[in-house]
């Protein structure tokens, strides 16, 4: 039956009207993957040499055992962002005499055909053969290799399970990301524990007790079974759309937005769109990761306050930039419905402003721990926060009126350039240059504080005159709405 499913998917691919475009994309992706694969092979072959140079005072085997869990922690993080869920259009099979276990088994097994499952084998196998095998024997080497494969399988199905649950409740994805971030910070930032020590405590023991390989094997098998049961229990559309939707309804009901009336309802719908779809959700998650951006620059004395403007703008406004540049493209599939609906477009724009203000405000408060590097850093963050919700939001919405490329929300976020065009390139210039156009003249005159005050004043002026800019953007939109709609219809 699995061969039948595979045959049907091949026929569906070749008979699709977008086959030519899909082949071109897959060829390009194949070339990129082969290039990446060559780097991975090189890294795996010379891993022992690299580790000896990075940790010259440590035993090579101890170092290797210590990095395995660190690798799989990063591997899980990448899988959650980049790995695609295996799909099969199950509706045509539900009324046929096809066993549900066969359908679910096909979906579960095809998840193993991922390049993420190949990387650890390529990276770790040369080291196991070159170092572990001569020093500890064949049984220990086989146990090591099986452990690596089993942990890869565990990560594979854990990431699949989290992403499938997140399709029903977007907060689960954010919670999983927060847990991984806390685990990482607990070691590398706060030093509460050592992941390297935990990794060596298991894999070091595995050298002497190869039967411990049963632990990762059981973990991988348990996660596969959990995915199988979850898929089998949610195979029918009715179970996904009615029972589960009502179960998680409260997660997207935000009472605070009720006070904004119709604008608040539009913001709530936008939040649901972000949490329920992969690509817009990745823009939100990217903003969380960029909150650590300051650690790269603030810990280095060579960077001056001019760089802090750039960092502050990105940390408090990366969501505005990454999500806002595709502002109307997110609604491409139902944009015609918006045009003929009773929605006042000024309310539509007000909802965008409100969404950006909320997210940027939360981002600013999350950056306040950078006060560790001085109160002046927080001051710069606040100035750029005002700039983001005032000036950058207006610029982004202005360029959104000039983006005619649609985005399919059903597609994943990894290696997806759909909707990207010249508009995004042009948008980067005013976003990056304008703050410095205002700040640098004062800086060169030795009045840096006045330069920051000027940035803050411009931001406040744009916030105070927001209603004026909304009218201008609305008038601009009405001159381009049919061209935007025509572009969104091109699939």
Automatic annotation (TrEMBL):
Enumerate the InterPro entries for this protein. Answer: DUF5687
One Pfam family matching this protein? DUF5687
| TM segment ranges | 23-47, 59-82, 103-129, 135-159, 171-193, 213-231, 283-303, 309-332, 353-372, 378-400, 420-438, 444-464
Give the highest taxon in the source lineage.
Bacteria
Alphabetically list the UniProt keywords.
Membrane, Transmembrane, Transmembrane helix
For this entry, the protein name equals: ABC-2 type transport system permease protein
User: What species is given as this protein's source?
Assistant: Mucilaginibacter pankratovii
């Amino acid at each position: 039956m699995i061969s039948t499913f595979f045959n049907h998917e091949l026929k569906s691919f070749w008979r699709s009207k977008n086959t030519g475009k899909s082949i071109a994309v897959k060829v390009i992706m194949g070339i990129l993957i082969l290039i990446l694969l060559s780097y991975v092979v090189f890294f795996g072959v010379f891993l022992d040499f690299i580790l000896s140079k990075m940790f010259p005072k440590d035993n090579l085997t101890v170092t290797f055992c210590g990095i395995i869990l660190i690798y799989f922690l990063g591997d899980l993080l990448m899988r959650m962002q980049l790995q695609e869920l295996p799909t099969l259009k199950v509706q045509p099979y539900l009324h046929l005499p096809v066993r549900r276990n066969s359908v679910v088994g096909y979906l579960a097994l095809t998840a193993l055909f991922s390049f993420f499952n190949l990387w650890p084998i390529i990276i770790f196998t040369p080291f196991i053969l070159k170092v572990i095998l001569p020093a500890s024997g064949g049984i220990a080497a086989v146990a090591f290799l099986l452990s690596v494969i089993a942990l890869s399988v565990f990560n594979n199905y854990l990431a699949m399970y989290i992403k499938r649950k997140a399709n029903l409740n977007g907060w689960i994805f954010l919670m999983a990301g927060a847990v991984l971030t806390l685990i990482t910070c607990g070691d590398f930032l706060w030093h509460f524990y050592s992941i390297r020590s935990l990794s060596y405590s298991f894999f070091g023991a595995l050298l002497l007790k190869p039967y411990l390989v049963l632990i990762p094997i059981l973990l991988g098998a348990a996660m596969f079974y959990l995915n199988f049961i979850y898929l089998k229990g949610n195979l029918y559309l009715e179970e996904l759309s009615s029972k589960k939707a009502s179960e998680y309804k409260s997660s997207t009901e935000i009472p605070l937005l009720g006070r904004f009336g119709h604008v608040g309802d539009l913001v709530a719908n936008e939040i649901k769109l972000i949490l329920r779809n992969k690509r817009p959700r990745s823009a939100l998650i990217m903003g969380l990761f960029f909150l650590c951006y300051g650690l790269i620059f603030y810990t280095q004395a060579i960077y001056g306050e001019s760089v802090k403007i750039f960092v502050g703008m990105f940390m408090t406004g990366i969501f505005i930039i990454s999500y806002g540049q595709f502002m109307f493209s997110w609604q491409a599939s139902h944009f015609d419905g918006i045009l003929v609906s009773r929605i006042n477009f000024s309310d539509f724009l007000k909802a965008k402003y409100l969404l950006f203000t909320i997210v940027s405000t939360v981002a600013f408060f999350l950056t306040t721990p950078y006060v560790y590097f001085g109160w002046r850093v927080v001051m710069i963050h606040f100035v750029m926060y005002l700039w983001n919700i005032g000036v950058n939001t207006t610029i982004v919405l202005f360029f959104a009126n000039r983006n005619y490329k649609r985005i399919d929300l059903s597609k994943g976020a990894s290696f997806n350039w759909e909707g990207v065009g010249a508009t995004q390139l042009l948008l980067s210039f005013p976003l990056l240059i304008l703050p410095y156009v205002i700040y640098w003249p004062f800086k060169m005159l030795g009045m840096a504080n006045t330069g920051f005050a000027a940035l803050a004043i411009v931001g406040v002026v744009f916030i105070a005159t927001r209603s004026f800019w909304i009218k201008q953007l609305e008038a601009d939109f009405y001159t381009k709405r049919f061209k935007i709609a025509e572009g969104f219809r091109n699939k």
